[in-house]
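Example for tutorial group B:
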């Protein structure tokens, strides 16, 4: 009678043990007759910086206290997108002013007290005045905060040319739509901290 059981060379566990030791880890083996074997490997790794699809580097951290009571100018022509973004921002106790296009956004910024807004979220494609034109106009205003305020581009397009165009217009970061709330918090928090 021929058996179908095949046996290895017996080196598997010793190779695993060698690799785990190289990485300063531990290996634990628990075996019970007629029940099976459990092998547990524990490895430690240092925290690393994350990058999003646009290579914007950030360390994930809790910016809740940084975001609280900050004033945001949200320029977004799509009412549903504006409402979603507003709810995300208000969840972190931020105060949101909205504009339905770039021209209205520029006017709201012009009429605000210098330093009132902490960040601008700017949809790139809007009627009347798009986000690129609005960002350029804000940057050209004769007031200190116009040069310093973080402006974050919002767009469904994530082509390199779109990201470059937003940077050329004076924007500091680029978030793709649909908006990822956590990525938005991390981006805004890192820019205004």
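The residue assignment follows.
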């Amino acid at each position: 009678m021929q058996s179908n059981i095949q046996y290895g060379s017996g080196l598997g566990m010793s190779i695993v043990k060698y690799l785990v030791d190289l990485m300063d880890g531990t290996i634990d083996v628990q075996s019970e007759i007629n029940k099976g074997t459990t092998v547990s490997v524990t490895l430690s790794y240092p925290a690393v910086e994350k990058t999003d699809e646009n290579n914007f580097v950030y360390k994930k951290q809790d910016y809740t206290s940084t975001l609280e009571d900050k004033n945001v100018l949200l320029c977004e022509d799509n009412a549903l997108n504006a409402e979603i973004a507003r709810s995300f921002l208000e969840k972190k106790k931020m105060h949101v002013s909205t504009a339905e296009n770039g021209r209205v956004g520029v006017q709201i910024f012009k009429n605000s007290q210098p330093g009132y807004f902490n960040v601008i979220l700017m949809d790139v494609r809007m009627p009347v005045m798009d986000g690129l034109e609005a960002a350029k106009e804000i940057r050209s205003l004769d007031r200190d905060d116009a040069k310093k305020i973080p402006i974050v581009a919002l767009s469904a397009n994530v082509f390199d040319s779109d990201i470059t165009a937003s940077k050329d217009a004076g924007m500091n970061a680029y978030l793709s739509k649909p908006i990822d709330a956590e990525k938005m918090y991390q981006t805004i928090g890192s820019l205004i901290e």
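DSSP finds eight helices and nine strands in the chain. Compare this with the pattern of hydrophobic and polar residues in the output above.
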